[in-house]
Amino acid sequence: MTGSHLPSMLEICKILMDRGYNVTLVAPGNYTAQSFSYKSIPQIRFDPKEMVVHNITVTSYLPLYNIYKKTAKEINADLFFCDHSLNHPCYDLAWKLGKPAVGITSSLIGTIIAIQSCRQRKITLTINDINAQRAKVGVDPHWNYGGRISNILMLLDNFFGFEEIGPILPDIYPSLTHNTSKHCGYSKSFLELIDQDVIDGVIWATVKTDTSELLSLNNSNIPMSVILNKNHPHIHITKYAPQFAILSHENTKLFLSHGGVSSCLESMYNARPMLILPIMGDQPGNAEKLKMAGMALSLSKTNLDVNDIVAKVKRLLDEKSFKKNAERLQLLAKVNSKRKYRGADLIKVVLNTAKHEGIEEENGGFKIDNEILLRDWITPDSRMGYIRGKYLDVYSVAFTLSLALSGGFVYALFKIINLIYRRNKNSQRSIKSKRE
């Protein structure tokens, strides 16, 4: 799981801990100890270098499965809360151990699968490879690339706020320190904007950036070394910046970001228009959604141009519609951010269902069948197939009956009119014959 997706999960975990549940995070890196909001959540760490980059979905399967299995045994886990991204082992282990699983994602799964299905041959090979890994740990094959998620609770954390429980945001954030607030800066592309007095500067957090590579960028009048050594009066380089605190500051007017879900949520919550440079994952989709919502513009990573950046920054700052749309979405974010409590409530319901429908084990836990655990939650339309689910059979019968009744009525009316006509005609003939 990635750092940008963790806060959504951990916000729900924090609520569950407050309600008396024991929660353990299993993730690479020392996340909770370094986090302002989640220090109370215990974490079992593993070295992210164990995850091979090449085809990570396949090569990381066995290491993750074994780590999850060992942890589940040590803490006697009752439920698996799985970040959806590249996490087949989490769902598979829950299914294998007979424990309920809950997933969370910031993107609609159907959209993800639809995009991936364009590469059908490659995906088929990947599924076969994943099933080969499953066989090594005694897990039955599964042919859905999305994983064993067809009958589990899936929480959608969507920054438009219309999807299940999103947007999920912390109640408390780190404050903006004096040292951070009095400096500005971001990248060489903004030197032109600073010279034109369009902006004062941008804060540049380099937590995942190799700053040594930037020293080769000397296409401006100011050497990059001056910026990186913090000798530029308007530019501040820092390893960490309290993003939410900066976005909530009244002097912050614009946010340049890759468009990760957390950044989009926080920007929308604070009504800050965005200039987005999407790189991978859900970032391009997030950028398109915010562009359609009218609070952002995007850049192309394959065709970056200083003039294009300057022009789009000026548009975002000068055209009032971007700020107006950001404020419109801000209300949605603030109102719907409280729905994270619904996410915690739904997880409690899943645990309660497992307790009452599962088989009690020797250790006091419950073993369940994930294939049928939440069958009552599945809406009838998804179980009955397309025709019956869309009530097309009912509509067809109703249409046929309506057509038959209408036809019968028209036929009867025709007969009555014809009978009246014939009687009138015969009556006129009779009167005429009597006169003659």
UniProtKB/TrEMBL annotation:
Family matches, as Pfam families: UDPGT
Superkingdom of source: Eukaryota
Matching InterPro entries: UDP-glycosyltransferase, UDP_glucos_trans
SUPFAM superfamilies the UniProt entry points to: UDP-Glycosyltransferase/glycogen phosphorylase
Keywords, in A-Z order: Glycosyltransferase, Membrane, Transferase, Transmembrane, Transmembrane helix
Classification via Gene3D superfamilies: Glycogen Phosphorylase B
PANTHER family hit by this protein: EG:EG0003.4 PROTEIN-RELATED (PTHR48043), FI06409P-RELATED (PTHR48043:SF145)
UniProt protein name: 10084_t:CDS:1
Source species: Gigaspora margarita
